[in-house]
Specification:
This protein is an alpha/beta fold. It has 4 domains: about 90 residues; about 40 residues, no CATH class; about 290 residues, no CATH class; about 100 residues, no CATH class. It contains 19 helices and 20 strands. The strands form 5 sheets. Strands 15, 16, 17, 18, 19 and 20 form a 6-stranded mixed β-sheet that branches. Helix 4 crosses helix 13 and helix 4 crosses helix 14. The protein is elongated. The termini are far apart. The N terminus is likely disordered. This is DUF927 domain-containing protein. InterPro entries: DUF927. Pfam families: DUF927.
């Protein structure tokens, strides 16, 4: 009989629960890693315990001592084969998870936030969502002083910070995934706004590019479940304007739906799923990208990722005021440097304090604060579903920011949150102002109004000759229209294309696209932008 060794370096702790999607049982052991000089958890497939050699190899690889006796190894084999009534759960992605009746949060680094009994949850062995991209540097107080406090000089930065906390709060609401896209032609700090938001949960490495495949985007979204997803440089999505517009629209819908496509079993057992808040930035709005691709931005997409303009006429770009002794460039550089020195402390601290409040209390408080924002902007009784959902995006950011203030994470007054988020909300819903003479280049307007334009029905012209003309006169629905080549139109347009729709100047096709096919005898010309001639003249004059 082998004498029991109470100092055995391997202890069986629990067996995995076989939840939906799990096809393999695992054991959870606690081992003494002699190399790290600490006790660690180790997952073992239940079938591994049938073979002593497999057990020994895996334990040695995990850091168990090579100096154990034969009797000790026999005890280890017996320990791992004994029955157990203890169980642990797997998580297929980061985010909130129930552990023995207690709500906890598991990070992308597989760290568990919250107080629980028994064994912690573990990433599912086949999960790709635990990317380990979150990190921290400095203390919370240093982040508050050097990042959060200076960010008050920028309403957009405050919105970004609030959105980061909203990523942790969206789970406690009925709001679907979505967020904000900051856009503007200037280099006035849009990427710095994203960097400030990222500092809540990590460093600049968590800011990803729009240039990605659909499958990779699904994986990235799942890895940011119950968190903040950040994408920069929308223009990198695709070289082709048409393809970029289509991809942007597809990604916005996919992110808002919260579920990816079902793929082959060999690739993915179940579709990826997520609930998140997103921040994005680019030189052009998503609406403008849709126009570039000859598409109309659908209402459902608009409420998923809301365009927030950065005022290019503002002297300081995204900055509304400046600290004494700094110019705009110096301030932006200062924020960038501080975000690279102090990051990743606010998010985990916020989640830990939030969980101690209890789920019911969190839900009730968020609902109260969301309604307060809606009432403030007279949107609580709004019957326009699109406008109300846009307002809800900002209301969630406001409510989450207030909770961060209440929990002593954001060093702001509550009025600072309302002021900044409200300012961004008003910018987002305000129609883009443009002078009539600012719609098109002057030379192009002269060409549009020329009496010598060729009518597509004119006899004696071949298809190639008609195709070569920049502007043709056509008839659509008994109205005279001016059919303009796509490249000519885009070159001449100075304003946002959606303004032409608002003033009922642009003919769309049956699918709502901005361009139409031009029928001629025996076929069609390539797609063109078609402007209602009379409506255009009345608007310009």
């Amino acid at each position: 009989m082998v004498k029991e060794n109470i100092k055995l370096p391997v202890k069986l702790k629990a067996m995995s629960e076989m939840s939906e999607g799990q096809t393999k049982a695992y054991l959870l052991a606690r081992i003494r890693n002699v190399h790290a000089k600490e006790w660690q958890y180790l997952l073992l497939a239940a079938s591994d315990t049938n073979d002593d050699r497999v057990i020994r190899r895996k334990l040695l690889d995990a850091g168990v001592s090579r100096e154990l006796s034969k009797d000790e190894w026999k005890q280890i084999y017996a320990e791992l084969r004994k029955p157990t009534d203890a169980y642990f759960v797997f998580s297929d992605k980061p985010g909130y998870i129930w552990v023995n009746g207690t709500l906890c949060y598991i990070t992308t680094n597989a760290q568990v936030i919250g107080e629980y009994t028994g064994c912690p949850p573990f990433p599912a062995p086949d999960s790709k969502a635990f990317t380990g991209d979150e990190s921290s540097q400095g203390k919370l107080e240093e982040w508050q002083k050097n990042v959060a406090e200076p960010a008050l000089h920028s309403e957009c930065m405050v919105l970004a910070l609030c959105s980061a906390f909203a990523g942790y709060c969206i789970y406690f609401t009925n709001i679907k995934s979505g967020g904000f896209h900051f856009y503007g032609q200037s280099s006035g700090g849009k990427s710095t706004v994203l960097l400030a938001g990222a500092s809540v949960r990590g460093n600049a490495g968590i800011v990803s590019s729009w240039k990605t495949t659909e499958a990779a985007c699904e994986e990235t979204a799942e890895a940011h479940n119950h968190n903040l997803l950040i994408k920069d440089e929308l223009k990198l999505l695709d070289k082709s304007p048409d393809e970029a517009a289509r991809k942007a629209m597809d990604i916005c819908y996919m992110l808002g739906d919260g579920r990816g496509k079902r793929r082959s079993l060999g690739y993915q057992k179940s579709p990826a799923s997520w609930l998140l808040v997103m921040l994005s930035a680019g030189e052009r709005s998503l609406g403008q990208h849709a126009s570039d691709g000859g598409l109309e931005r659908m209402k459902g997409e608009e409420v998923r990722l809301v365009d927030v303009p950065v005022d290019d006429n503002q002297e300081y770009g995204v900055v509304n005021s400046l600290p004494e002794g700094m110019n705009a460039g110096e301030f932006i550089e200062f924020i960038q440097n501080q975000c690279c020195q102090y990051y990743g402390t606010a998010g985990p601290e916020f989640v830990g304090k939030l969980l101690r409040k209890g789920e019911d209390n969190i839900r009730a408080k968020l609902a109260q604060l969301i309604n307060k924002f809606l009432i403030h902007h007279k949107m609580d009784d709004c019957n326009d579903g699109v406008q109300r959902r846009i307002a809800l995006r900002f209301a969630l950011a406001y409510a989450s920011g207030i909770l961060a203030v209440n929990l002593k994470i954001l060093p702001y007054d509550r009025k600072d949150i309302m002021k900044a988020v409200s300012a961004c909300y008003c910018m987002a819903k305000k129609p883009v102002a443009v002078k009539k003479e600012g719609f098109f280049k002057k030379k192009f307007i002269s060409e549009l109004l020329s009496p010598n334009l060729l009518n597509v029905k004119s006899e004696g012209y071949s298809r190639d000759e008609l195709e070569s003309r920049d502007i043709l006169v056509v008839t659509i629905k008994n109205q005279v229209a001016l059919a303009v080549k796509k490249d000519v139109f885009k070159e001449a347009l100075l304003a946002d294309e959606k303004l032409l729709r608002q003033h009922d100047i642009l003919f769309t096709d049956a699918k709502g696209r901005s361009t139409r096919q031009i029928p001629i005898n025996g076929g069609y010309l390539s797609r063109r932008y078609c402007l209602k001639a009379e409506a255009l003249r009345l608007f310009l004059y």
